[in-house]
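Notebook, student rotation project (T.W.).
Task set for the rotation: take a protein with a known small-molecule partner, predict the structure of the complex, and write up what can be learned from the model alone. Partner molecule chosen: magnesium ion. Sequence and SMILES entered below by T.W., checked by me.
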Amino acid sequence: MQIVSVVQQKGGVGKTTLAINLAGELSRRGMRVAVVDADPQASAVAWAAPRKLGFAVKQELLSSGTVSQWLRNVLKQSSDVVVVDTPAGLGTVFRAAVDVADVILIPCGPSSLDINAARNTLASVSSMLRADARSEARVLMVPTRVDVQTPEGQQITDELGALGESISPAMSHDIYFVRAFTQGVSVSVGAPASKAAAEMQVLADLVLQQLGKAVA
Ligand SMILES: Nc1ncnc2c1ncn2[C@@H]1O[C@H](COP(=O)(O)OP(=O)(O)O)[C@@H](O)[C@H]1O
Ligand SMILES: [Mg+2]
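Predicted structure of the complex:
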């Protein structure tokens, strides 16, 4: 079992949207996947409430136990891949999610404020990984909610690229991502012909490569 953690110190950048739709795409490919919702706001759990996702979304709050208990609960999931969705911030949950991850996704919106937050988040992730000699975790920056019609949308990939980490192709600002939440599905299922679904396929390929798995 391998773990993909989605982290960002800033809220509203698309962590939950990324976590659910990545899991949705992997599930569509026939992989056994689960989402661990470590955010007390429980948005991923709410996404799953209509019971249409086709994979498990399990709430595991760190506040209810110790970090080691939380890690055990995450590792207990019987899946090929577990996607961990986290709250905003760089606190204990963030650290536990980075600790346990094989791949760390850092979503980043297109504004300067977003890029500052991504830079800070990456700095924290990098210092944690440097401090843990055993860690082979990979980091992938994911530009999200990008409108390529705007200069900001065009610049974000360059600015994120300057941070020196791997960067995925941008996820567009796309109403299908919003609608997927309303419908309780992932874009891969709810709008398979959409740009959003095509973008999730590219991201899933990249994540699988980073996990060292054959692209399904
Ligand atoms: N690529 C996107 N296109 C359009 N809206 C998006 C996209 N990603 C996220 N959103 C919307 O932005 C808001 C915040 O996203 P969310 O995934 O909840 O962020 P976070 O988990 O980081 O707080 C939600 O209303 C969501 O529907
Ligand atoms: Mg969220």
